[in-house]
Amino acid sequence: MTTHRPLSRSAWSEVPPRQVDEFAHRVLAESDELAHAILREIRQDFPHLRLVEDETGEPLALVGIRRAIEGFVQHLAAGAQNPRVPPAMFQQFGRGEVRVGRSLDSLQAVYRLGVRLSWRRFADIGQQVGIAAPAMYELAESGFEYLDGLVEQSVRGYAEAAARRAGERLRLQKQLIDLLLTDHHADPAAVLGERAARVGWELPETVCVGLLVRPAREAVAPAVGEEILLDMDAEQPRVVVPEPDTPGRLDLVERAAAGWSGALGPVVPLARAAVSLRWAATAVRLVENGALPAGRVLNCTDHTQELLLLPSLELIDAAAARRLAPLDAMSPAQADRTAATLLAWIETTGGAPEVAQRLDVHPQTARARLRQVRELWGDALDDPDRRFEMLLLLRARRLRRAPE
């Protein structure tokens, strides 16, 4: 809260009441003329400033200038120590800056100009009625403290309006995301266009959809920017990234969500956003059960193998029981060596030298292991379909045994 230095027990307090009354009378008599003069200067210095009118057609800025002048002088004339700012009017000005999408910088500049111009006229009138210079200097100091109060009230109004607008935008954003993530839209523009316009979101050609896992219940929402839709009300917050192939856009999301776990689904046409969400949900389940790393937002397309193989573990296990049955009779260490040899042979489609290089063993060792593999699987190794199936099963086995 702004505190004003009292004018009492100062040079101003020594000004005779007759001079104070005369000063106040003259200022109030020309407050309307002074307000118009100040508004003309403001319009000249800020030609793009849009002025809102009240119900009578009078610019609210003019009303505010006049009230500020009159309030300041009337409080001084009444002997008040701290001239009070009329709060409602200047909070309204702050809310207005939110409505037109501006920061408070221009409004504060307008206030400073108004106080400076007012002070020039106050100084002239003070000289006319014989108020001593030290008292007028103190009056000037009080005027600039009064300016701080104007700004404070406008900041309060601005903050309240910004919070309401942000809350409304988040509500509309959630509705847009809900609609976007329903089943396939034949014509996304027709279905989503109106709601997207209400949050200022330009419909993209492509999107990717992500799910986030909160690091803590009170975690602050990632600052992803207004072009990216975010629904923080969901148990697992949802994020919709437009045109994800734009250079740096996915990096921005990952940086903004530093410390969060989660996943971004693949890039899809806007009408297929629900598909991207399903892959993101699959990845998040793997994160939660430890199959994929936590602590960052993953891109599904960087983990295609895990997403294709690990969600189907029941099917993988059933197929492995048939295709990789020889491993069941071995010790864990021997089974791992044999499985690695079989996988290296399938992946390289080469002989012992290539397998040896892949496994970092001597070629003679590789030959011995390959003979064992041939004995165990026989003609199945010559069937391309069987080899491909074993490739999938062995990679799934390797993924499940990968160190965390």
How would you describe this structure to a colleague?
It is a single chain. This protein has 404 residues and is of the alpha+beta class. It has 15 helices and six strands. The protein has helices spanning 17-29, 31-45, 60-77, 87-99, 105-128, 133-180, 188-198, 249-256, 273-288, 304-309, 313-323, 332-348, 352-359, 363-377, 384-401; strands at residues 206-213, 229-231, 238-242, 261-264, 268-269, 297-299. Strands 1, 2, 3, 4, 5 and 6 form a six-stranded mixed sheet that branches. A hairpin with a 6-residue loop joins strand 2 and strand 3 (238-242). Helix 11 (313-323) packs across helix 15 (384-401), helix 12 packs across helix 15 and helix 13 crosses helix 14 (363-377). Residues 1-5 have low confidence and may be disordered.
Topology diagram in text:
Blueprint: H1 17-29, H2 31-45, H3 60-77, H4 87-99, H5 105-128, H6 133-180, H7 188-198, E1 206-213, E2 229-231, E3 238-242, H8 249-256, E4 261-264, E5 268-269, H9 273-288, E6 297-299, H10 304-309, H11 313-323, H12 332-348, H13 352-359, H14 363-377, H15 384-401
Parallel strand pairs: 4-6
Antiparallel strand pairs: 1-3, 1-4, 1-5, 2-3
Helix pairs in contact: 1-3, 2-3, 2-5, 4-6, 5-6, 6-7, 11-15, 12-13, 12-14, 12-15, 13-14
Structural classification: alpha+beta
Beta strands, count: 6
What gyration radius follows from the Cα positions, in whole Å? 37 Å
Cα end-to-end separation: 53 Å
Q: Extract low-pLDDT stretches.
A: 1-5
Secondary-structure element order, N to C: HHHHHHHEEEHEEHEHHHHHH
The shape, in one word, is rod-shaped
Average pLDDT taken over every residue: 83
